[in-house]
Amino acid sequence: MSSELRVVLFVGGVGGAKMAHGLSRCLPPGSLRIVVNVGDDFRRYGLRICPDSDTVLYTLAGRVDPVNGWGVAGDTTTVLDALTGLGDDTWFRLTDRDLATHMYRTQRMADGATLTQATAELARAMGVDIDILPVTDAPVPTRVITSDYGELDFQEYFVRHRWQPEVKFIRYVGAEDARVTTAVAEAIDWATCIVFAPSNPWLSIGPILAVGDIRERLLGRDVPRVAVTPVIGGKAVKGPAAKLMAEQGLAVSARSVAGFYGALLTDFVDDVRNPEFTCDGMNIIQRDTLMLEPADRERFAGEVLGYIGERIR
Amino acid sequence: MSSELRVVLFVGGVGGAKMAHGLSRCLPPGSLRIVVNVGDDFRRYGLRICPDSDTVLYTLAGRVDPVNGWGVAGDTTTVLDALTGLGDDTWFRLTDRDLATHMYRTQRMADGATLTQATAELARAMGVDIDILPVTDAPVPTRVITSDYGELDFQEYFVRHRWQPEVKFIRYVGAEDARVTTAVAEAIDWATCIVFAPSNPWLSIGPILAVGDIRERLLGRDVPRVAVTPVIGGKAVKGPAAKLMAEQGLAVSARSVAGFYGALLTDFVDDVRNPEFTCDGMNIIQRDTLMLEPADRERFAGEVLGYIGERIR
Fold first, then answer.
1. Residue B185's pLDDT is what?
2. Rounded CA gap, B99 and B76, in Å?
3. pLDDT value of position B313
4. Cβ proximity of A142 and A154 under 8 Å
5. Looking at residue A313, what is its pLDDT?
6. Residue B287: what pLDDT?
7. A47: β partners
8. Residue B31 contacts residue B5 (beta carbons within 8 Å)
9. pLDDT < 50 positions in chain A
10. How many other CB atoms are found less than 10 A from the CB of residue A102?
11. In whole angstroms, what is the distance from residue A218 CA to residue A193 CA?
12. pTM here?
């Protein structure tokens, strides 16, 4: 059964990385490919920084900081401390070994490598044998239009202002003209199921789905297309998802998340703690989606794969 | 007497920094401005790296590595080690605290600061109250045309290939169209003497003198214009100066250095170890120009200032 499972997982950062980790523990080698959001990517200190991709990378490499869920465990701040000493406003905190990742990627891309190639090289260097695929090699920076500060770069909104400003609108700049990479197109065609991690719909999955040709490619696949709720009991498991829903006038609920995906989904994995609901054209199941401990990841991934396995039998 | 001395010193890296340090110890505050070569500047890992400027900065801040004469004393290599672990070809070795300098500058310039402004901020942050002035804010990268490798970026020639390739020609790209900064123009007008440090004529002073409007500005000042020989006893004190002279078919001698400057000089400080020579329009004196120990810098700078003081009395 599980030999037929070829999973493409769409992810943002921490929540997505946890699900990626769980799936990687349940699936045989070569059965999982991960498509990662690049809307968070930005440039600081001249460096090309890809927070979501790196969170997935560090998580799968077993190097991630277990407390934050991002960054390198036990990393030092020698450079950051020196920057602070120079009077720099170090609102984006880059630790020493993490910095090496950004420097490697930036130099390789200056040498002509694509983001996809640089990411693959980093994964290989860190001993990760799962494909981590940026959804596109084109820059598609997410911008957040706020009431108080006007338009902000994503990281200014998310890190500098700790996602506190009220959001009026979100732009995925350049996404409409962007195209998925060849590797992502192949992954979608290869998959026997497509899974959307419990990542933020508007900030992590939204920038992926805004890439010009991706919806058509997904809708063209007659396989289960499954999303997991990031909302449990009227709250987001992590980050600003609930706050964004309220600011859009949406109910903070799994139903709103299902509505976000709409026709892209055939199946929706809701949390057992949520009130049941129905949505046209979607099978909705309830599971314990919380992944607080590493063991939860494998348990939950196993449950999702078990369900999908039944569906594609 | 010394109150009348207002010195502008033109420098490259290590040798120039030593002379800058010596002069800074002999002159009252506000009497020294340093104009620094930017032909060595380059971008690696996305960072704007200015080796000559930083060598002067670290030297005047008392932070320079005393063995190499460049880089930060006692600095760590956490990031570099991580980069090596990722498989990066770390031929240009950036240590942790040095890295912070480049990151600060790169970000400030991305924010719209000029190189001159970023350099001034770094100097202030490091407690250096002497103006360190990039000769121009325009990029004027030095390129080295070699017999074996064709055209190389300066740092590829100098660091990666350890200045071993035979040099056929040197290009100061963009220099003709570049202009000195306002701060440099003001410094030249302000000076009561202009001094060229014992830096490499072709690789350190050459890129400065190639900037479009600088020769005219220097020749327009009726003040002593003094250069110090970097050649002693048929050898360069440091680096490839002697090798470059031989490759150009020049005698490896102070006379060849004086010939390089030509009409720009009124005075030339030769080393006591060299055979005496004459050059039309130049007063040539001999001193012990070697600055092996920190105390030598002050002693030598004092001798040069004493001589200039007599000249401008």
1. 98
2. 10
3. 82
4. yes
5. 82
6. 97
7. A44
8. yes
9. 1-2
10. 23
11. 10
12. 0.94
Nearest Cα to Cα of residue A82 among B13, B95, B17, B60? B95
Task: Give me the phi and psi of A249, to 5 degrees please.
Answer: 80, 15
Under 8 Å between Cβ of B265 and B282? yes
- Which uninterrupted H or E stretch holds A129? none
> CA A49 → CA A41, A46, A140, B24, distances in Å?
6, 9, 13, 41
A110–B48 CB contact, under 8 Å: no
Task: To the nearest 10°, report the CA torsion of A10, A12, A15, A21.
Answer: 60
Q: Which of A17, A21, A13 is nearest to A302 (CA)?
A: A21
Work out the minimum CA distance from B96 to partner chain A, whole angstroms.
Answer: 5
pLDDT value at position B2?
42
Question: Token pair for residue A287?
Answer: 């599971």
Give the model's pLDDT for residue B1. Answer: 39
The third-level CATH classification (topology) of the domain covering A2-311 is Rossmann fold (3.40.50)
Q: What count of other Cβ atoms lies within 10 Å of the Cβ of residue A259?
A: 13
Give the chain B residue nearest A78 (alpha carbons). Answer: B96
Beta-bridge partner residues of A172 = A142
Question: Which residues share a beta bridge with B240?
Answer: none
CA distance A80 to chain B (A): 7
Please give, rounded to a whole number of angstroms, the shortest distance from the CA of B78 to a CA of chain A. 7
- Count CB neighbours of A162 within 10 A: 10
**Contact criterion met (CB < 8 Å) for B103 and A121:** no
With contact defined as beta carbons under 8 Å apart, do A48 and A41 qualify? yes
Contact call for residues B205 and B19 (beta carbons, < 8 A)? no
- Residue A139 has what pLDDT? 96
Non-local (6+) Cβ contacts of B140 within 8 A are: B38, B39, B172, B173, B174, B175, B178, B207, B210, B211
Q: For B106, which residue in chain A has the nearest alpha carbon?
A: A45
Query: Within 13 Å and on the Cβ side, how many CA atoms surround B136?
Result: 25
Residues of chain B found within 8 Å of residue A110, distances taken between Cβ atoms: 43, 46
pLDDT at B163: 94
Tokens 């994995």 correspond to A269
- Which backbone phi and psi does B41 adopt, to 5 degrees? -60, 145
List strand residue ranges (DSSP E) for A183-245, in order. 193-196, 225-228, 231-232, 235-236
pLDDT average per 10 residues of sequence, chain B (313 residues): 80 96 96 98 97 98 95 97 96 96 98 98 98 98 96 94 94 97 98 97 97 97 97 92 94 96 97 95 96 94 96 87
Neighbouring CB atoms inside 10 A of B105's CB total 27
Structural contact between residues B118 and B105, judged by C-beta atoms closer than 8 angstroms: yes
Q: What's the rounded Cα separation, in Å, for the pair A96 and B94?
A: 12
d(CA B273, CA B286): 8
Provide the ipTM. 0.93
Q: Do B103 and A88 touch (CB under 8 A)?
A: yes
